[in-house]
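Lab notebook, bench 4. We co-purified these components, and the gel suggests they stay together. Before we commit to crystallization screens, I want a quick structural picture of the whole thing.
Request: model the full complex, all chains together.
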Amino acid sequence: DVVVTQSPLSLPVILGQPASISCRSSVSLVYTDGNNYLNWFQQRPGQSPRRLIYRVSKRDSGVPDRFSGSGSGTEFTLRISRVEAEDVAFYYCLQATHWPFTFGPGTRVHI
Amino acid sequence: VQLLQSGPEVKKPGASVKISCKTSGFTFTNYAIHWVRQAPGQGLEWLGWINAGNGDTKYSQRFQDRVTITTDTSARSAYMELRSLTSEDTAVFYCARGGDLDYWGQGSLVTVSS
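Here is the predicted assembly.
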């Protein structure tokens, strides 16, 4: 199985300041069609996961533009340009290029 | 788009559980449905996937011997059955739509306890 790692696993943030989370894959996530199938999800306490970003950098409808994704191959990054209080949550990356799909371990973003 | 899952279950070790995921707001057979598990205080774990159009399935090797995912297209619903439950299967199970898991159900809590 593809191993997906995230760093850091715990990220203390300051409101109004930027933050970033790294996601690394044990193999390239470039599919035969040239796309990287790497998604980012946010999970607030007591809620279902919510997709923020798909295919590395495409932001879902309703997701604030302070969230952005980048990367290719084996290294990917989720950035928050200015952290707001509502961004306190767990963040997971998911590789959907290779079967079986695999999630990263999650990063806890906290004040 | 909505995915509405069945309610909480309490099962004894060795039993089976079958969770449903009833969908609305989209053409069911045009999408896949994934199942994801989250143990208490833990991360997300992908269990498997079904193509609602043709019934093709793929499972995580870790669960392949114990899990079966099915659909009922007339009911616009997907189902996940997990057998030979142990206390380690106590978790919230989620269904999610599509290849990119864009919409998720509210989760179904399964508690395994003697």
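The longest strand of chain B covers residues 17-24. Worth comparing against the SEC data before the next meeting. The interface with chain A takes residues 34, 36, 43-46, 48-49, 58-61, 94, 96, 99-102, 104-107 of chain B (CB under 8 Å).
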